[in-house]
């Protein structure tokens, strides 16, 4: 199979199912690291290429969703997991290698529980 060719839909579904628990692990680790006074969090990770088709670094921001207070970044273990996920997407199929991911922890007042939202930019 041509590595540039789009994988079949069933292969993509299997890939998404395989990485979903890893994304949940990242979101849960961020929630555990969130200061108790924060009202949820907003985590952004952007892939910054350091060379053409070469290595990259992950630039992150991690802050309170409501007050916009920022932390000096996320723990290294979490950033490393995000980098591993980005590499998994790129290896599976390069066009799926996202450039930015935003994970938010949001308090649902009606349900009185936390929810997570994740968005990717390609």
Structural description of this entry:
This protein is α+β, with helices and mostly antiparallel strands and 122 residues long. It is built from 2 helices and 5 strands. The chain has helices spanning 9-33, 76-92; strands at residues 41-49, 56-63, 70-71, 100-108, 113-121. Strands 3-2-1-4-5 form a 5-stranded antiparallel β-sheet, with helices on one face. Helix 1 packs antiparallel against helix 2 (76-92). The longest helix is centred in the N-terminal third of the chain and has 25 residues, at 9-33.
Provide a compact summary of the structure.
The chain is built from two helices and five strands; from the N terminus they run H-E-E-E-H-E-E. With 122 residues, the protein is an alpha+beta fold. The radius of gyration is 16 Å and the shape is globular.
């Amino acid at each position: 199979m041509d590595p540039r060719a789009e994988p079949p839909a069933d292969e993509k579904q299997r890939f998404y199912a395989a990485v979903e628990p890893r994304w949940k692990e990242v979101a849960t680790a961020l929630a555990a690291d969130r200061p108790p006074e924060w009202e949820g969090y907003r985590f952004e990770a952007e892939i910054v290429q350091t060379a053409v088709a070469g290595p990259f670094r992950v630039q992150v921001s991690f802050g309170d969703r409501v007050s916009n207070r920022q932390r000096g970044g996320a723990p290294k273990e979490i950033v490393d997991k995000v980098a591993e996920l980005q590499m998994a997407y790129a290896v599976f199929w390069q066009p799926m290698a996202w450039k930015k991911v935003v994970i938010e922890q949001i308090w649902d007042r009606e349900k009185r529980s936390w929810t997570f939202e994740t968005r990717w930019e390609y």
